[in-house]
Design goal:
The chain is an alpha/beta fold. Helix content is about 50%, strand content about 15%. The strands form two sheets. Strands 6-5-4-7-8-10-9 form a seven-stranded mixed beta sheet, sandwiched between helices. It has a three-stranded antiparallel beta sheet with strand order 1-3-2. About 40% of the residues are buried.
């Protein structure tokens, strides 16, 4: 009812007399992001999880080593954003995590977004400071943001061992949440030998071996990524997951029934995508397939807005863009694949499947 009244009261008014609520919310959107980023970085949600009871602002400020005034303001904002619950005890306000904060914002949770949030705060957020330059120049902004050359995309992405681990932790957290949906969007059980190109932390490979007990997965990635994945992410207990070191643009690809390219093609231009997919087609067994995992735009490009924003992020960070299902199908067709289908998962990432004829 209130919304209807608001609309009715604006009808017939000049735009200058309307209250620009949506525009003001957009202007201040970064304030919300940084509130979440800083709360995670300071460990607010971790402290509340460990306490197992509501805590006062003073108790939290002491636990995170921050000023009482700053902590009170941060906690109030988190409560306003519905990330914290408030409790009143003898006139004192105490705080506890909401269920979603405990599940997704604490470091110890198996589906935590903490590492993804850290990467967003310390890398993506800094790149977006130069969005205007990226739009003007049509290229990524690593040189301005971090003082590193972007001529080699992954040298820029992995500009230090610490940054590489952060990126891999980001991928790990995303596939822990979305991985099952994308690997089960199609029935992949006929494909026993799978190669995950750019498989990074191995989180998606683990989802594959969990969903399809008869398959084996080879993670193909750069030598230093493979080394880090073995050290931090894939244990010896994952017996159906193996590694193959190499550069997928330069080195021979292992033969497989199915190749998975998850969040790979959106990094690259159409020409580079066709170059890579042609290499995949040539290595693929007859009757095999390729699974693309990407955030799909509507066919007219009108949304979803999250994917439109991701496409801007590709401009700021990479050489690529987000695409429609038809655009990915065209890339697959140009590389020799046929019978392309796509499935929407209802989450961030969707699936596109192309086949190699027998």
């Amino acid at each position: 009812m209130a919304e209807n009244q608001e609309v009715a009261s604006s009808e017939g008014k000049p735009a200058a007399e309307m209250y620009p609520k949506k525009i003001l919310e957009y202007m201040e959107g970064f304030l919300i992001s940084k509130t979440v980023f800083s709360s995670c970085e300071l460990g607010v949600f971790d402290v509340l999880l460990a306490a197992e009871r509501p805590l006062s602002a003073e108790e939290i400020s002491q636990a995170i080593g921050a000023s009482l005034d700053g902590t009170e303001r941060l906690l109030a904002a988190c409560a306003g954003l519905q990330l914290l619950n408030t409790h009143r005890d003898n006139g004192q306000v105490c705080y506890s995590n909401t269920e979603q904060a405990s599940v997704y914002l604490t470091r110890s949770s198996p589906v935590s977004l903490y590492q993804s949030i850290q990467y967003s705060s310390r890398t993506i957020y800094l790149c977006w400071h130069y969005l205007t330059d990226a739009v003007r120049e049509g290229r990524n902004q690593y040189e301005k943001a971090f003082g590193v050359s972007s001529n080699d995309l992954f040298q820029a992405l992995y500009r230090s061992d610490e940054e590489m681990v952060k990126f891999m932790q980001l991928m790990n957290s995303i596939w822990n949440i979305c991985g099952k949906d994308v690997v089960t969007a199609f029935d992949l059980s006929p494909f026993k030998i799978i190669c995950d190109l750019g498989g990074c932390s191995g989180a998606l490979a683990k989802q594959c071996t969990s969903a399809y007990p008869e398959c084996t997965v080879t993670i193909f990635d750069l030598p230093k990524v493979v080394c880090t994945s073995r050290e931090h992410f894939v244990t010896e207990a994952s017996q159906r997951i193996t590694f193959h070191e190499g550069d997928f643009f330069k080195d021979s690809l292992p033969e497989a029934d199915l190749y998975i390219l998850a969040r790979i093609l959106h990094d690259w231009t159409d020409e580079r995508c066709i170059e890579l997919l042609t290499r995949v087609y040539n290595a693929c067994k007859p009757g095999g397939a390729v699974l693309l995992v990407e955030a799909l735009l509507h066919e007219d490009g009108s949304g979803p807005v999250t994917v439109q924003l991701y496409s801007l992020n590709m401009l700021v960070q990479t050489e690529g863009r987000e695409r429609t299902a038809a655009q990915y199908a065209a890339l697959l067709t140009a590389s020799g694949f046929t019978g392309t289908q796509h499935r929407l998962t209802g989450k961030i990432y969707d699936a596109v499947l192309g086949h190699k004829e027998t």
